[in-house]
Write a structure and sequence with these properties.
By secondary structure, the protein is mainly α. It folds into 2 domains: 57 residues, Homeodomain-like (Arc Repressor Mutant, subunit A), CATH 1.10.10; 143 residues, Tetracycline Repressor, domain 2 (Orthogonal Bundle). It contains 12 helices and no strands. About 4% of the residues have low confidence.
């Protein structure tokens, strides 16, 4: 027991507690245990410290969730690339968010909670600037940027949520093939479209389909843009 206490004291001296370390540990805990598993007791154990030390840096779970979400989103949004078109920049931002939510499913839930928090505003700002760069008239910039934001967060979040319902170790193609077979057996009067496209389900690529949706939105925005 004495050796364990000595080891933990040594860890604290070598790795002084900081807000950054707390947020990193919170992200790891959220990834493994989900939102419900993020408690200050569990976080304190992971950091080999006491809950009181954590409260010195963050006021509570809500602030910690926001900081963790902000850290993931910040890392997901790629820096601007010189010479990139607005369309390419939007695609890169969208795919960065898609991959981040796929890796951290809880982020999708957090992004949908508030339109006033820093993470969602950062995404809205990034998309909005590219909408402006496309030459979209001021009167419809909000609509265009909102359509992109809602698609990115909504589809990425839904993809991650669906993945969480599948049992670990399940073969994706086998799972989708079984789902496609179930679709093909649906009532043809009520589900004509679903039955028609059932064969496309087993081998579709989620990221490719996601980007295809972005391109559809950009195609709709293009006619509203002012001629160069």
């Amino acid at each position: 027991m004495a050796a364990t206490r000595t080891t933990r004291r040594t860890e604290r001296r070598e790795n002084p507690l900081s807000r950054e370390r707390i947020v990193e540990a919170a992200i790891e805990l959220l990834d493994t245990a989900g939102e419900g598993g993020l408690t200050f007791r569990a976080l304190a154990e992971r950091l080999a410290t006491g809950p009181g030390a954590i409260y010195w840096h963050v006021t509570g779970k809500d602030e910690l969730l926001l900081a963790a979400t902000d850290a993931v989103v910040t890392a997901a949004v790629p820096p601007a690339t010189a010479g990139a078109t607005p369309q390419d920049t939007i695609r890169a931002l969208a795919l960065g968010v898609f991959d981040a939510i796929d890796a951290h499913p809880w982020v999708g839930t957090q992004l949908s909670h508030s339109a006033m928090d820093a993470p969602i505003l950062r995404l809205f700002e990034g998309l909005g600037r590219q909408v402006q760069a496309l030459g979209v008239p001021r009167a419809v910039q909000f609509t265009a940027a909102s359509a992109l934001l809602n698609y990115v967060v909504g589809v990425a979040g839904q993809n991650a949520a669906t993945a969480r319902t599948v049992q670990p170790g399940t073969d994706r193609t086998e799972f989708l093939t079984a789902m496609a077979a179930a679709w093909a057996r649906l009532d043809p009067e009520k589900y004509r479209f679903v039955r028609d496209i059932a064969g496309d389900l087993p081998h579709h690529d989620d990221r490719v389909e996601f980007l295809a949706g972005i391109d559809l939105i950009l195609t709709g925005i293009a006619p509203r843009a002012r001629p160069a």
